[in-house]
Structures are given as structure tokens and as C-alpha cells.
Amino acid sequence: MANDSPFRILARDRAQAPNFFTQDPVLRRLLPTLVTEATWKWLEPQLVRMGAQAASAEINRCSDIADKQSPVLRQYDSHGGRIDEVDYHPAYRDLEEVAYGSGMIGVKYDPELRAAYGGDLQVSGFALTLLFAQTECGLTCPACMTDGVARLLALFGSDEQQQTHIPRLAARDRAKLHRGAMFLTEKQGGSDVGANETHAVRDGDQWRLTGEKWFCSNVDAEQILILARPQGAPAGTKGLGLFLMPRDLPDGTRNHYRIDRIKDKLGVRSMPTGEVTLEGALAELVGDVDKGFKQMAEMLNLSRLYNAFCSVSAMRRSIFEATDYLRARDTFGVPAIGHALVRQNLADLNAEEIGAKYTVFHLARQLDAADRGSANDARLVRMLTPMVKYSTAKLAVWAASEGIELVGGNGYIEESVLPRLLRDAQVLPVWEGTTNILVLDTMRAAAKGNHEALYIEIETRLRGAPAQLADEVDRTRKLAAWSASELAELALPRAKRWADRTLLAYELSLLLNDGSPTAAAAARRLMRRHLDPELETSLEDLAQLVDHTVA
User: Fold this and answer.
1) Residue 16 in domain
2) I need a labelling partner for 26 at 20 to 30 A (CA). Which of 165, 294, 476, 488 fits?
3) What is the pLDDT of residues 454-477, one digit of tens each?
4) What is the domain count for the chain?
């Protein structure tokens, strides 16, 4: 591929076009273990196609343009009338065609696919998302919001709401698609959603919403879920209702709210995040009027899982770019990838990415099982989601920064994708709950006993690990045992350490149970990084982590 492309493949032996799926041997090994044989036969060709699209020069160029040519808000028409329309560069529309057209959302709600592969559709949709997000993180947020609105309507909406809106939210054809959004936070509350002041007043069969929303991503979406306090409802989260607010009214006019501005963000600049003032906007109630926040929590958890998948995508793309560059570049008479310190850096990056990838996909599988009615998997989802989100988000920022440093000066130049990866990654520890907020949520989940299901899961997987990994299994058992014994007296300042160690034990149990040399090498490297820096990494483990993870 030409070196002037925004996507640079520099490795000298690469004879074929890049493909983010076929060139990820860890992903190719992992996914068939998580879905049925029938699902895999149906899914694999779609992943090959998406892997090629996401890695293509054309789609990477679109992403680069959409980042630099951010959406623009037009508040007035030529006659001075208020219109509040968002103009997008055509490159962004091309990205939408790829994302929504792939079915990353649609597969989850298609009746025929649900009948045939219903137990695997979260894993399937997220696998497509992982590949797409390696090129375009910004649009992944609107895709997440659209999925979230469809999910909440499927869980809590009336029959009429489901029949009217879900087919549009799940459409693959961009012309028929209704995009979704979630307007949640307000100036005075932020993460303290219970402080929200937007209020709702009944107007016949509908409601009118008044107030301000401060962070509104995908601000011009056609269908918006929004929290508001019905007249006379109590303070706090218990007084919030959940409403579906359309952008456009049945007569084609715009609903009664203003887009005040689009925020000038550090990253994910391809999609619009705005500030909105509601001026008696018409909306319909979703579910029970007194359970709005509890219902919205389902969308928050889905958003956090999307966030985690975006984090792994950023990690994987950073490693992909750095590895290709280091293979192609000669320094001091040898390929840069052959230097001992470089290989240590890459081993750390690959171990963390592999562990994170196993964790997010197993969490998606647990969500599939929970959707089918598994109470135990629902407990695992509740326990793991906040931990996985904050952990992977921090790793994404680190991996993007490490990727730039490994490439050197060329990695810091905007012709490279790496600076955009770093800017985009920085939002991941912030949106859908900062680390401290998520640690508190983790402790709330543990206080209800959900950690017990997680410890059982860890121990069950460790019992299935190959006998030759006895030392690693023993270390992991001690890690989980420490967490269990300390939980009852845990002081809040130590909560993050407990959560970190618990998640590490789970991650190691997944890797050790897998049985592959690469997963075992990743587990040992993670132990070295987080438990005992004096542990030696064998040449065999280095080869597994550095030479075999970008096929």
C-alpha cells in the first residue's frame, strides 16, 4: 500500500491487503469457542468482510477526514428560522454505511437471526464492532447509543413502541435508519444523576419535558432516551422517569428543543456532542414511571461494554501499527523489532491486549446468557461491567501512548493514525463513568453478593486449566482468596486495589483455562507486570507474544 495513505502498512513481506480479522490469530482462536458451530459458520464471512473494510485505505481515509472535518451546527436557515441542523462531511456518511450496513446492531434485533442464533448475537455484534472501531472510534458511540435505545425498548417498551421503533433503529439501510441517543447528564449533577432537574409534565397521552442536558452525544439522533422528573416525583434517582423523545414530530416539524452548541472535544471529533435546552419537548413514557433510572442502567451497562470494546480496539490498532513499523524499520543494523527492549515493550502491550480481549468477549457472552434468563450470568455481568470498563479504558490510553513512543517521531505526526488513536482513547476513561465512579459501582455490586458468583467462576475456570500451569493457577488462587477474605472489612480507599486484583484474577483464569500457548504466555506476562516484576519471561513466551500475535 502506498506510503502516502493515512493507513500505513510498512512491513516488507506483506503480500496481501491488510485485514484486521484474518491478521488477528488470537481473535480467530477465541471467537469460535464462544459461539455455536452454526453461528460461527454464519459469522466468520462477515468478520472477514468487516476486517478488510476497516483496514482498507478508503475507510481509513474517511475516518481521517471525518475527524478533521467535524460536524457543524447550523442553527438558522436563510430566513432566520431556527432549524438546529447538523451538517456532516460525506466521509462520515460513508462510515455510517459501513457501520450500520454491517449489521453490528441489526443482527441483535433481526427476528430470523434471533431465531437461528439468538444465544450468540451480543458476541457477534460486538465482534463486528471491535473490527470497525479499530479505524473509527467516534462513530462507534452513535452506534452504541442506537443499540442502547433499541435494547431498552425491547426490554421495557410497549408493544407499539417496539413495533414502531426497533425496526428503524436496527435498519442496515442508512435511508431507513433511525439513530439513537441518550441525554443523561446535566450541569449541576454530572455523574450524580439523582441531582437532575429536567422535569416532565403530562400532556394527554404524552409528556412535555423542560430543562437542560449538558453532554448529548449523537445530538441530532432521531430517537432519544432521556431522564426527567415527573411532576410531584421525589428527589434523587428514584424520582426519575424514562422518556423517548423524537427529534421530529409526526407533522415533520422539529420537536421543542434547541441545540445550543456542539462541543469542541479533544477526540472523537467525527461525531457531534452537544448541549440541549428542552422547551416543552414532546416525549412518551417508557416502562414504569418510577423506574426510569433502573431502566436506564441497562443502557449504561451496554454503553460501558461498548466503551470496553472500543478500548480493546484502540489497543489492538496501536499494536498493529507499531509492530508493522518496527518490522520494516532497520536500526543499528537490524530490524527494530529484534531489539531486546523493544520486544519487552511489545510483550507488555500484547499481553494486556490479549487479556482485555478475552475479558470483554467473555463478558459479551455472559450478557447473551443473561438475556436468555441465566441469573448467574446476570450477576456476573453486574459485577464485571464497571471493573472491565475502567480497566480497559486506562489501558487504551497507555497503549496508544506506547505505540507512539515505539514508532518514535513518525508516530507523533498527524499523517499517522496514532495521534488520533491517543486523542480518541482519552475519552474512554471519562464517558459512561470515570474510574472513581465505577469503583463505587463495583462496590455496590459486591455489597449485594455478586462477587460470590465471580469467585466461583474464577475457581471453576482454574480447575479446568492444564496441569502444566500449576504454578500460575496457584498464584491466581491466592489472588482471588485474598480478595474474598478482605472484602468484608474493606475500607473505601482500598476499594480500587481490591477491584483491580479481583479483575486480574478473573482475567488470568480465562487465559489459563484457554489452553493455548499464547494465552498462557499472556497470563505469565501479566503476572510479571502486576504481581512479581522479578518473574522472568522466557524466550518462548516472548516469541508467542511478539512474533505470533500479528500474523
Assistant:
1) no
2) 476
3) 999 999 999 999 999 999 999 999
4) 1
